[in-house]
């Protein structure tokens, strides 16, 4: 079995994707596979890299599926430690993606493992597997999204400033929240638990509001955004609400997302980790996304799809950190050396981590020791090569590669734009 080979990755054309060749997904798909002809009228939303049965990846040369290759040699392709840990004989424990986002995705959260088992057992049509789905988003271009609940004092301020939000939440719950939150509460203390319960009451009122009440107050909210932008506590919020309303008119997402969740902006190279049971949504931009291999989604707003309000209200963590506290801090990766720079984004989960490698300070070769598990690499900018032993493969934008466990590789940059993202899993 080869230790390094190119992959052909498939793509998805969801409605929210960027249109035609404006989409990084379309650019990558067409550049890596000349048979792909970009339709300038259609959206290109996601490039999938991995073993997921919906859109599996294939060996570029032999056209064998990565799933079949792993099944033929699970220890060689995954490593004994990962086979023992995850139990799969044909699948990676992670799914690696590129997303090109033009329209807001649904506000959503994902169950943890315990809840996923229950939801899958009770409702397999809406919850197709029993796994959790923590996610990490790494910005390829400027990116904006929603990530977790705003700090409590911001929400309290909005309940006082914005009559439409107060109308939906109600005077009693609004006043209880404003008068009883403790923004200085220590994490995991009794006061923190009380804060979360108060926040849950506010969110529940929003999510259980009738369609009539939501529509009336959404229209009044957008009128306020146009005519009285100074009423809002953030300068960027009125235009954000106006833009979101153009995509999903009169939607509850204006309240449960626009007013209750953090508005997050990432520059290229920045990352955010989205834990199970944390509400989030992507608004615009191009990102690399890595997640546990699951399809379980509990939706809240900006979607025509099934919204499971009861489970959503019950399941969320109701953490209320600022955006800066939710961004990931990159770590130095000590098992590489040479030219260029590699930083590690290592979330607190077992299924994946991601290496981000650039050569902005000069072309050359960066050497990587063999990792204790499989990895998938995508080149997003520039030109270079990936080499192991006597095998040297051209790496251009959209080219995707599989690297087997224990394989030492060199990334060789032809230019200073050469940029790669490498998802991998190692047993603890």
Automatic annotation (TrEMBL):
<dbReference type="InterPro" id="IPR011051">
    <property type="entry name" value="RmlC_Cupin_sf"/>
</dbReference>
<keyword id="KW-0413">Isomerase</keyword>
<dbReference type="InterPro" id="IPR046457">
    <property type="entry name" value="PMI_typeI_cat"/>
</dbReference>
<dbReference type="GO" id="GO:0009298">
    <property type="term" value="P:GDP-mannose biosynthetic process"/>
</dbReference>
<feature type="domain" description="Phosphomannose isomerase type I helical insertion">
    <location>
        <begin position="168"/>
        <end position="261"/>
    </location>
</feature>
<feature type="domain" description="Phosphomannose isomerase type I catalytic">
    <location>
        <begin position="4"/>
        <end position="152"/>
    </location>
</feature>
<dbReference type="InterPro" id="IPR018050">
    <property type="entry name" value="Pmannose_isomerase-type1_CS"/>
</dbReference>
<feature type="binding site">
    <location>
        <position position="280"/>
    </location>
    <ligand>
        <name>Zn(2+)</name>
    </ligand>
</feature>
<comment type="function">
    <text>Involved in the synthesis of the GDP-mannose and dolichol-phosphate-mannose required for a number of critical mannosyl transfer reactions.</text>
</comment>
<feature type="binding site">
    <location>
        <position position="135"/>
    </location>
    <ligand>
        <name>Zn(2+)</name>
    </ligand>
</feature>
<dbReference type="InterPro" id="IPR001250">
    <property type="entry name" value="Man6P_Isoase-1"/>
</dbReference>
<feature type="binding site">
    <location>
        <position position="108"/>
    </location>
    <ligand>
        <name>Zn(2+)</name>
    </ligand>
</feature>
<dbReference type="InterPro" id="IPR046456">
    <property type="entry name" value="PMI_typeI_C"/>
</dbReference>
<dbReference type="GO" id="GO:0005975">
    <property type="term" value="P:carbohydrate metabolic process"/>
</dbReference>
<comment type="pathway">
    <text>Nucleotide-sugar biosynthesis; GDP-alpha-D-mannose biosynthesis; alpha-D-mannose 1-phosphate from D-fructose 6-phosphate: step 1/2.</text>
</comment>
<dbReference type="GO" id="GO:0005829">
    <property type="term" value="C:cytosol"/>
</dbReference>
<dbReference type="Pfam" id="PF01238">
    <property type="entry name" value="PMI_typeI_C"/>
</dbReference>
<dbReference type="Pfam" id="PF20512">
    <property type="entry name" value="PMI_typeI_hel"/>
</dbReference>
<feature type="active site">
    <location>
        <position position="299"/>
    </location>
</feature>
<protein>
    <recommendedName>
        <fullName>Mannose-6-phosphate isomerase</fullName>
        <ecNumber>5.3.1.8</ecNumber>
    </recommendedName>
</protein>
<dbReference type="GO" id="GO:0008270">
    <property type="term" value="F:zinc ion binding"/>
</dbReference>
<dbReference type="GO" id="GO:0004476">
    <property type="term" value="F:mannose-6-phosphate isomerase activity"/>
</dbReference>
<feature type="binding site">
    <location>
        <position position="110"/>
    </location>
    <ligand>
        <name>Zn(2+)</name>
    </ligand>
</feature>
<dbReference type="Pfam" id="PF20511">
    <property type="entry name" value="PMI_typeI_cat"/>
</dbReference>
<dbReference type="InterPro" id="IPR016305">
    <property type="entry name" value="Mannose-6-P_Isomerase"/>
</dbReference>
<dbReference type="InterPro" id="IPR046458">
    <property type="entry name" value="PMI_typeI_hel"/>
</dbReference>
<dbReference type="InterPro" id="IPR014710">
    <property type="entry name" value="RmlC-like_jellyroll"/>
</dbReference>
<comment type="similarity">
    <text>Belongs to the mannose-6-phosphate isomerase type 1 family.</text>
</comment>
<keyword id="KW-0479">Metal-binding</keyword>
<feature type="domain" description="Phosphomannose isomerase type I C-terminal">
    <location>
        <begin position="342"/>
        <end position="389"/>
    </location>
</feature>
<keyword id="KW-0862">Zinc</keyword>
């Amino acid at each position: 079995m080869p230790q390094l080979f190119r992959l052909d990755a498939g793509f998805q054309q969801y409605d929210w994707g960027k249109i035609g060749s404006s989409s990084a997904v379309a650019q990558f798909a067409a550049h890596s596979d000349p048979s792909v002809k970009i339709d300038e009228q259609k959206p290109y939303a996601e490039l999938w890299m991995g073993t997921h049965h919906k859109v599996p990846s294939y060996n570029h040369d032999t056209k064998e599926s990565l799933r079949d290759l792993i099944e033929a040699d699970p220890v060689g392709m995954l490593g004994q430690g990962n086979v023992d840990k995850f139990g799969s004989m044909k699948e990676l424990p992670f799914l690696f993606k590129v997303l090109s986002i033009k329209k807001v995705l649904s506000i959503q959260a994902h169950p943890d493992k315990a809840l996923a088992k229950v939801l899958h057992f009770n409702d397999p049509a809406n919850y197709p597997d029993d796994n959790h789905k923590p996610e990490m988003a790494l910005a390829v271009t400027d990116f904006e999204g929603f990530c977790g609940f705003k700090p409590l004092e911001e929400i309290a301020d909005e309940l006082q400033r914005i009559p439409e939000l107060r109308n939906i939440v109600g005077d009693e719950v609004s006043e209880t929240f404003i008068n009883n939150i403790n923004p200085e509460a220590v994490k995991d203390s009794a006061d923190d638990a009380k804060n979360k319960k108060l926040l849950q009451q506010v969110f529940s009122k929003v999510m259980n509001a009738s369609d009539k009440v939501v529509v009336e107050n959404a229209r009044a909210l957008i009128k306020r955004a146009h005519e009285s932008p100074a009423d809002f506590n953030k300068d960027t919020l009125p235009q954000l609400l106006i833009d979101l309303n153009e995509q999903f008119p009169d939607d509850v997402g204006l309240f449960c997302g626009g007013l209750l969740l953090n508005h997050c902006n990432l520059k290229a190279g920045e990352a955010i980790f989205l834990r199970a049971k944390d509400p989030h949504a992507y608004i615009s931009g191009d990102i690399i996304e890595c997640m546990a291999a699951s399809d379980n989604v509990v939706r809240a707003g900006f979607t025509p799809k099934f919204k499971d309000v009861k489970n959503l209200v019950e399941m969320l963590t109701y953490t209320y950190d600022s955006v800066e506290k939710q961004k990931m801090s990159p770590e130095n990766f000590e098992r590489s050396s040479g030219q260029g720079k590699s930083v590690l984004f290592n979330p607190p989960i077992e299924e994946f981590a991601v290496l981000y490698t650039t050569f902005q300070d000069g072309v050359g070769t960066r050497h990587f020791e063999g990792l204790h598990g499989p990895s998938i690499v995508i080149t997003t900018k520039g030109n270079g090569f990936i080499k192991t032993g006597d095998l040297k493969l051209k790496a251009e934008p959209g080219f995707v590669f599989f690297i087997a466990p224990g394989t030492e590789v060199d990334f060789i940059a032809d230019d200073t734009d050469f940029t790669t993202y490498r998802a991998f899993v190692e047993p603890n």
